[in-house]
Amino acid sequence: MPQTSFIPDADAARAYRDALGCFATGVTVVTTLTDSGPLAITVNSFTSVSLQPPLLLWCPDRSSLRHDAFVTAERFAIHVLAEDQLGQAEHFARNGEGFTAQNWSQSAAGTPALSGFIARFECQHFDAHPAGDHTIILGKVTQVTTCPGNGLVFKRGQYGGFLEQV
């Protein structure tokens, strides 16, 4: 199979995005509580940074209307979605509102806690750094909750599950 090489500039933006899409990621929804109520955003730019102290990072797009609310949030929660939560992932990718009494409650830490996740990381704002067209938000993890299940995966613009080996 032939290889393709390119310089990731404005003319190759689509090719660069497609190349990044070759890497499968988990799907998360980040939530925070604002003066207007609960707010959420679907992200796949999530990773662990440090075990001691326990730090995570995620990166909202600076052009997002929800960007500033998350960059200035003192607390937020990162929910790793289960493979049957595609509807939530798509909803919060388009709209940061639309919470219902059935899909969330307020956690002891004061963040919106979604239901149905396989892992939730309660975080306190640790730091934020501008990085190109995104901002790197670091959170210090204050509590972790896990539930059994398989995670929702995103690769090459498509959602799916993970085939477990037995």
Describe this structure in words.
The structure is a single chain. The chain is mostly beta strands and 166 residues long. The protein contains 3 helices and 12 strands, in the order H-E-E-E-E-E-H-E-H-E-E-E-E-E-E. The strands form 3 sheets. It has a 7-stranded antiparallel sheet. The protein has a 3-stranded antiparallel sheet with strand order 1-11-12, with no helix packed on it. The protein has a two-stranded antiparallel ribbon with strand order 7-8. A hairpin with a 4-residue loop joins strand 4 (46-50) and strand 5. The longest helix has 9 residues, at 86-94.
Helix content: 10-25%
Gap from first CA to last CA: 31 Å
Number of helices: 3
Low-confidence stretches: none
Mean pLDDT across the residues is 90
Q: Compute the gyration radius: what is it?
A: 16 Å
> What's the count of strands?
12
As laid out across the biggest beta sheet, the strand order is: 3-2-6-9-10-5-4
SSE topology string: HEEEEEHEHEEEEEE
Assembly type of the chains comes to single chain
Main sheet: strands, sense, barrel: 7 strands, antiparallel
Which of globular, elongated, flat, extended, rod-shaped describes the shape? globular
The portion of residues forming beta strands comes to 35-45%
Structure class:
mainly beta
Short summary:
By secondary structure, this protein is mostly beta strands. The chain is built from three helices and twelve strands. Strand 9 (119-131) and strand 10 (134-146) form a beta hairpin.
